[in-house]
User: Which sequence fits this backbone?
């Protein structure tokens, strides 16, 4: 439903999006993940035809964004970053405006507005001024506006930012409900968000696409930097030397003392699992093995690794 | 056209939903009534000539107040991104905002009806020049709206949009005035006298409705709305 091929966008001296390519299948919920300024919003603005690309091509719902932007926008529901809304209108007036500018057939208008109000739980605030609503309700108004015309593709830029936990869960469920029948592209810089809602994740950093896959695939992709944490009682320098010699170990670092036990951090080769060998080597020398556990990579570690942030 | 109309209605309504429209109408009507009636009874002449020569100056300063928020606010609050990702062409959105402004202008001109009614009640002025005068005002105000809308698209700051709108409308107004033409190089004189809003306004106001004057106003409006459209298309 969305196809992006080699898209780049430059603002002055900075390359906001650099040669990004990806596909989103019909009915898929895809998450764009990355730190602030990674190029997620720019990518979404390009796909919504708000910004033009410098190079590369993209199609949304089968229409080229450069050649037929109106056709793209007709089939797209878009919630921009920070959910901008006309604060002086009532919820009902706003949705009516959306229906008019989207040229919704007049016979369907009342029905579609009623459906959007109900779908987003806005019935009770229909006559209220948007500027006087809580942030959670405003977010729902933004979503209702994006959903009103029953679009094939939804692009949501940080749909849950600034909401409290209850509201986040509500919006998440709303999105999951929508995603069962539509193609959804959503962005976030919050990991659990993406893990909870998306089937597939793209990780952006400094304008590049640095990783993609299901949350499980991404974790596998980042394997090779897996660590084993050890707590061993014994002569520290000998322990470090002995462990470094175990097959599958890249290096062993003395991690100091914690809770009365000397700790070591072992970095392993890609795909290697030297835990049994480590235990055997330590037992052979008669040292006391207090603790041994492999650090499992969560999406968070993958994210930090791929975006070059400071890891543990 | 349906989208442009929806935007026009939205702008017209939202002006009345905030103090903008009321503040504008109060100032406009207080100002015009005060200056008209101050001299009207002293002169004892049942004519609206003074009214029609004063009003363009009022409009120069008040029309940009109507238009200053039209684009700058969209930019500032980010709603531009909502508006321009709807399936609406930039020119439709621009035209819609212009129509909304035109509605407000028409309401404010209609608000001066008591002046006209007083004049007709107390004397027997010619109906022609009064009707022509109002047509001239509508044209003049509409041109000011187009200029102001362009000024508003240049910045996200309403005050800057207002000042720029006043400056540009004022410059366009006086461009054809005698003292400007005298001061300007002789080669520019014909251009300036043709380009100024003033000359065409006075020409309509004399009661002679010349298609060239109407065409001139249409061209000014089209030109500035076109510039606005181009400005919106160039957004990064």
Assistant:
């Amino acid at each position: 439903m969305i196809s992006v091929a080699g898209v780049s966008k430059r603002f002055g001296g900075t390359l906001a999006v650099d040669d990004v390519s990806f596909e989103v299948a019909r009915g898929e919920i895809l998450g764009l993940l990355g730190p602030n300024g990674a190029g997620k919003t720019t990518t979404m603005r390009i796909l919504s035809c708000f910004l033009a690309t410098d190079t590369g091509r993209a199609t949304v719902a089968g229409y080229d964004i450069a050649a037929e932007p109106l056709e793209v926008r007709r089939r797209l529901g878009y919630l921009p970053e920070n959910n901008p809304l006309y604060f002086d209108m009532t919820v009902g007036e706003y949705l009516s405006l959306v229906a008019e500018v989207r040229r919704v057939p007049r016979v369907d208008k009342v029905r579609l507005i009623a459906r959007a109000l109900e779908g987003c739980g806005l019935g009770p605030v229909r006559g209220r001024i948007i500027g006087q609503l809580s942030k959670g309700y405003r977010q729902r108004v933004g979503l209702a506006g994006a959903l009103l015309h029953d679009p094939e593709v939804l692009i949501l830029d940080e749909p849950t930012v600034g909401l409290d936990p209850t509201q986040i869960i509500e919006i998440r469920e709303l999105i999951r409900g929508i995603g069962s029948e539509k193609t959804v592209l959503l962005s976030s810089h919050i990991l659990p968000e993406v893990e909870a809602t998306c089937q597939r994740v793209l990780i952006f950093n400094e304008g590049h696409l640095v990783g993609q896959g299901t949350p499980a695939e991404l974790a596998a992709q980042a394997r090779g930097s897996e660590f084993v944490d050890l707590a061993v009682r014994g002569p520290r320098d000998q322990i470090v030397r002995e462990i470094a010699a175990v097959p599958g170990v890249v290096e062993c670092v003395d991690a100091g003392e914690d809770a009365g036990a000397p700790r070591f951090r072992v970095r392993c080769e890609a795909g290697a699992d030297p835990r049994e060998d480590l235990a055997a080597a330590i037992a052979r020398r008669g040292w006391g093995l207090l603790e041994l556990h492999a650090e499992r990579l969560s999406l968070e570690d993958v994210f930090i690794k791929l975006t070059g942030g400071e890891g543990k | 056209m349906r989208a442009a109309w929806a935007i026009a209605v939205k702008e017209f309504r939202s002006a009345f939903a905030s103090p903008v429209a009321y503040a504008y109408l109060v100032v406009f009507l207080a100002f015009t009534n005060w200056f008209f009636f101050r001299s009207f009874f002293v002169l004892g002449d049942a004519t609206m000539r003074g009214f029609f020569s004063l009003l363009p100056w009022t409009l120069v300063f008040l029309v940009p107040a109507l238009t200053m928020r039209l684009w700058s606010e969209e930019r500032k609050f980010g709603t531009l991104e909502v508006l321009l990702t709807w399936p609406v062409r930039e020119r439709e959105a621009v035209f819609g905002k212009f129509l909304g402004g035109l509605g407000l202008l028409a309401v404010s001109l209609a608000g001066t009806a008591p002046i006209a009614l007083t004049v007709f009640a107390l004397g027997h002025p010619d109906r022609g020049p009064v009707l022509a005068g109002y047509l001239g005002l509508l044209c003049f105000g509409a041109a000011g709206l187009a200029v102001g809308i362009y000024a508003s698209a240049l910045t996200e700051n309403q005050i800057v949009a207002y000042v720029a709108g006043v400056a540009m409308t004022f410059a366009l107004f006086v461009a054809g005035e005698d003292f400007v033409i005298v001061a300007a190089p002789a080669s520019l004189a014909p251009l300036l006298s043709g380009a100024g809003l003033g000359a065409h306004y006075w020409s309509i106001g004399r009661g002679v409705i010349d298609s060239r004057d109407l065409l001139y106003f249409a061209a000014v409006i089209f030109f500035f709305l076109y510039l606005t459209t181009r400005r919106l298309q160039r957004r990064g």
